[in-house]
Each structure stands twice: as structure tokens, then as C-alpha cells.
Amino acid sequence: MSARLDHLVVAARTLAEGRAWLEAQLGVSLQPGGEHPDYGTHNALLSLGPDTYLEVLAVNPAAPPPAGPRWFGLDSAEMQERLEAGPALIHWVAGVESLSPGPEVPELSRGSFRWRLTVPAGGVLPMYGVAPSLIHWLTPSPAAQLPDAGVRLSRLLLGTAHPDRLRARLSGLEFSGTVEVYEAPRAELRAVLETPGGQVTL
User: Fold this and answer.
1) Would residue 166 count as lying in a domain?
2) Which end of the chain has less Cβ packing within 10 Å, N or C?
3) Phi, psi values for residue 68, rounded to 5°
4) 1 pLDDT exceeds 80?
5) Phi and psi dihedrals of 39, rounded to 5?
6) CA atoms within 13 A on the CB side of 192
7) Is 69 exposed, middle or buried (0-12, 13-18, 19+ CB in 10 A)?
8) How far apart are CA 27 and CA 167, in angstroms?
9) Structural domain of 107
């Protein structure tokens, strides 16, 4: 299984809050995304190049509640408390060439886009967000359609109390990309981005 960085996930209490925060941080405009009916969320998007993007994700107050927990831990008290302090980079997703469907690998859709994604039971983040979720696109990804805003990922920094475990997981995925794994008391996720106005760390 050969994996690469597909997208970064920034979460916020509301989509408007997350979008405004990120646009102020990066000095560029995000693009409208859409709704995720399976999980009751919606998003806005930003190109990080022809094959990579960033999404701002929030609970969609106009959508009916999902049948189970929302993805990326959005329903957890810990995540809700974290987002009270403001939008945050919470996770990253690695693209793979195939994923077998199953209870924890549902087939999902947003508009014309279709994909399979690993969503653990309970919607928890793997290794508190520093280990990637895996995605297999059944259609071309949104990255191919997003306008180039001149933003690129320079480095993805992954701090964890179990760096060897994370390195082994990435090695098992045959992951290729610019990530730095280091030891930290708790999970830490930072993205260093090159923008038209200079370098920004989320």
C-alpha cells in the first residue's frame, strides 16, 4: 500500500468561524465545499497544489443529526472543548490506491465526489489525530478542481508520546511525503505553509 498526503483537516465550531480564521491566517480566499449528509457536516476548501488540499470542517446546523458519531471526533466533549478556544488543525488524511469497504470503511459522497474513508467506531481520531485516516477516491478528488491560491505545504510536524509506533505505521503504509515525527508529551499536529504573504504555521 503506497500512501501520500491527500488533505489536512481544520475543525471549527462553525464553518463561518473556521473560514474567516483561516483566510485571515493565510491571506487567501477559501472555496465553497459542500455538505456531508452521512455525518451532518459541511466544509470549505483550499488548494495546496494539484493533488493536495486543506478543508475547514464544521457541524452543519441545518442537517439532521447522523445515525452515529460524527467523524474526526467532532461529537466528543474533548474536541468541543478544544474548539471553544478557536479553530484548529486536528488531523490529516493519506490517500491510498485501494480500500476494501466495510463497517469502518464506508463509501461516502459530497455532491459528485465519491470516496471510501477509514472512520473508526465512535468517530475517534487515530493516535489523537497524528496518525492519518486513509482515503481512496472513487472519483477525481476536489484538489484537481480547486483554483491555485499559491499556498503549499512545506512540512507537516507530528508530535506524539509514541513516535516509534507512528513511524512504524507510516512505514507500513509506504508513506511518501514531507512529514516530521518527533517525541512530545501529547499529540501535536502543525502544518508549515508557504503562502503569497510568507510562511504560516497552523
Assistant:
1) no
2) N
3) -135, -170
4) no
5) -125, 5
6) 9
7) middle
8) 33
9) 3-148
